[in-house]
Amino acid sequence: YVPKENHLHGIFQQHQAQALVRAGYQIGVISPFLRSLRLLREGLLDWPKGLEIEDEQGVAVLRFFGWQLPRVHRLIMGQWIRVGKILFREYIKHNGQPDLVHAHNAMWAGMLALEIWEEWGVPYVLTEHSSAYGRGLVRPLELELTRKVCKGATTRLVVSPSLENDLERVLGDSVLPWEWVPNILSGEFEKEIVTFSQAGRDDNSFRFLSIGSLDKNKAHTDLLQAFASRFKPESNIQLRIGGDGPLQEDLVVLARNLQIDRQVVFLGRLKPDQVRAEMQACDVFVLSSHYETFGVVLIEALACGKPVVATKCGGPDWIIHPANGLLVPVGDIDALGQAMVDIQNKFHQFDSHQIRHDCIAKFGEQAVIGQLASIYSNVLSASLEDRSTLMVKEPE
């Protein structure tokens, strides 16, 4: 959960937790953080160790930093859950027993929540974010454990209808129903924004922007090829790519080989304020992924009033529509390039203020927290009824 060395881990949960605090809830986060022993070879002995308790903008955050067992999956999973139960006891010691637990992802937070329910009787809500189910990356044993976790949850949530379809297909109908509660827009993006013209854009350039991990799934290779097919060598058309990852060097080489290296800027890993600045300064945001369960970068761009070109890769299918952008088939480089041309040509037809307004109305703090508040209330009411029933049935 948002370790100092990588602020992107757990960032969606952080935004939700902080928004719940602003809505008046008492919120805590427990986060086992177990690193691979292989990192010892990298001289990272100065990383934090043991229990760490902090107050982060009103959120009580309990982390445990340690080293995980050798790479045997079930052993690592068991160790993570044991550390999680230690953290839960620490949370109770400092804050009292919570009314409910909200677990993000069945593997492994949901498994921890199930054990908390069985030992302490605290009901749990489960939100599933993972793309592993749709991409066929979940092992048979994990599927059985996931079904058990899902059945134990009082309410099951997904971040997009496309993920719901994947879960129904993979897990079957024994864990229905699912409810759609999207990821929340960061509060920073709900503040008044600065448009690109006010941010110092005084040239005649047109900027496409893409932000995401430089890995195979994000498909920046497709993006570079699509861009080169339509905009080489138009020097006033730029493509800026934010993020880092295993394919960074390959992508730099590809841009050079495609002879677009003077038009493409690799920005590296960006801090949150740098992401906002880049989005405010771009003209169009592009997402070329092969699979996404949601796509937080899309709603961040929309909150800045920017139209979007995205692939029909899951989450974007339910976010992008003709009033705020264009959708293209996954992996279709020609269609991606043509959509970038089309959106540039009709750029001035998009209403940036309406794009921003519609985004906040659907994904902003008030909308999402309103959904969660209703869900939490229903869960707690059901829990009280269950306890009342148990008390009535107890023998005299």
Protein model, in words:
It is a single chain. The protein is α/β, with parallel strands linked by helices and 396 residues long. Helices cover 42% and strands 17% of the residues. It contains twelve helices and 13 strands. The protein has helices at residues 11-22, 73-95, 106-120, 140-152, 161-171, 220-231, 248-257, 272-281, 296-303, 333-345, 352-363, 365-393, and strands at 28-35, 50-56, 59-67, 101-104, 124-128, 155-158, 179-180, 206-211, 237-242, 264-268, 284-287, 308-311, 325-328. Strands 10-9-8-11-12-13 form a six-stranded parallel beta sheet, sandwiched between helices. Strands 4-5-6-7 form a four-stranded parallel beta sheet, with helices on both faces. Helix 2 crosses helix 3 (106-120) and helix 3 packs across helix 4 (140-152). The chain is globular, with a radius of gyration of 23 Å. The model is unreliable at 196-200 and 388-396 (pLDDT under 50).
